[in-house]
Amino acid sequence: MIGNRHKCYVAEVSQILTGHAVIFMKVIIIGGFLGSGKTTTLLNLGKHMSGLGHRIAIIVNEIGEIGVDGDTISSSGIVTKELTSGCICCTLKYDMMYTLKNLREEFKPDVVIIEPTGIAFPKQIRDELAQMDLPDASFAPVVHLVDASRFNTEVQQIPAFITTQIKDADVLCINKIDITSAEQVVSVNDFLHKLNPDAEILQFSARANDEQFQKFIDILAEEGEMGLETEERNSIEMSGVSTYSAEFTLLSDLDADRATSVSKSILENVKGHVQKINPDFIGHIKISLKFPDAMIKASLTASDGTPHIELFEQNGNTQTSLKLLAAVTNVPNEKLVDIVETVVREKLAEKELDFEKPEIPVRTINIMK
Questions:
Q1: Which helix (H) or strand (E) holds 41?
Q2: Same structural domain for residues 271 and 207?
């Protein structure tokens, strides 16, 4: 349960949100399964705090070798660090500690927002960081986002993993209520309360930045209860998720319409092939496609979903490249690699886009044997 008894402390830390002098470096960890809306949430949160004149840094953890979300976040102008090729709650925890110390010493942020990979255990991250020598750091309550629109499928696909994430949280945020029926939201709320009765539960749409989202921002000014140290667990092994990421350099000219078309086509075709193996897959298939002065972010989070595509302006951007990360449940790793490589190459050729693939050492995560 959130530490309401720390009222004096809360009064000090809330200065981060109200625009007054800051005493501590606030560390905020926003977790949630793949595709639950973490990037949108922390972008809105970061913009809110930056608007108050504070120094904000964001650490993004991608399970794949190639970062995708970092491009989106850095386009907002917020200092962003990427940690790839693993999970910061287990395989990359020392990289996480090193990055946080360097940010503190070199950039001196007022607030550090951490976005772990969707197959991490955020409480385990918080417990590890709390043991570091950071005397001026404080920790917000551990946040876990839930995608209300596909929650039933998540529980069916990987029940033990999802329930562990929920039980670890101080604050449970039911996201995407704008695309979910009221009955489903009530059902998810009841499930979460039964599983973690001590957690604060909020319902909002991170995209809408509504009243409940503002309440969420206020809650982050509180201090999270540290409690007992979490038993160290390997979240990658528990997740049932296989991943593969790839990057392609595009040698042809692109505009927004052409970039949107190729991104949508790739996502729909990857989805179709993955469905043949696991008709009810969940996870995150996402694309970052950069071209002169703009970037397309495209994503798909479930077998019954459709691609969501956003355009971001990036003044001065001259690079043209496509990055893709696929992380899905219950699909053999070698099949996922073959699907991604085949689909991307075929669709780029169909759109008459010349490309080359940089030689990047690739490490895949294979959970399903």
A1: helix 38-51
A2: no
Nearest partner of 324 among 283, 279, 281, judged by Cα:
283
70 and 49 in a common domain: yes
Q: Is residue 298 part of a domain?
A: yes
C-alpha–C-alpha distance, residues 275 and 329, integer Å: 11
The residue among 88 and 190 whose pLDDT is bigger is 190
**Residue 181 token pair:** 């029926």
Specify the DSSP class assigned to residue 140.
Answer: P
Identify the CATH number of the domain in which residue 267 sits: 3.30.300
Phi and psi of 19, rounded to 5°? 95, 5
Same-domain check for residues 160 and 19: yes
* Domain identity same for 42 and 108: yes
For residue 225, give both structure tokens: 């209860």
Contact 324, 340 (CB under 8 A): yes
Q: Is residue 363 part of a domain?
A: no
Q: Is the dihedral of CA 316, 78, 90, 35 positive or negative?
A: negative
Report the C-alpha gap between 83 and 60 in whole angstroms: 6
Residues 266-315 pLDDT 10s: 999 999 999 999 999 999 999 999 998 899 999 999 999 999 999 988 77
Round to whole Å and give the CA distance between 322 and 344. 9
Residue 269 CB coordination number (10 Å) = 17
- What is the value of pTM for the model shown? 0.85
Q: Are 226 and 131 in contact (CB under 8 A)?
A: no
Range of the domain at 216: 7-235
Cα–Cα distance for residue pair 240/37, rounded to 1 Å = 20
- Evaluate whether 157 touches 329 at the Cβ level (below 8 Å): yes
Chosen domain end from 196, 218, 235 = 235
Tell me how many domains the chain contains.
2
Q: Where does 196-255 have alpha helices with state H?
A: 211-219, 235-239
The reply to whether 314 and 168 lie within a common domain is no
The whole-angstrom separation of Cα 2 and Cα 57 is: 24
**Domain identity same for 134 and 197:** yes
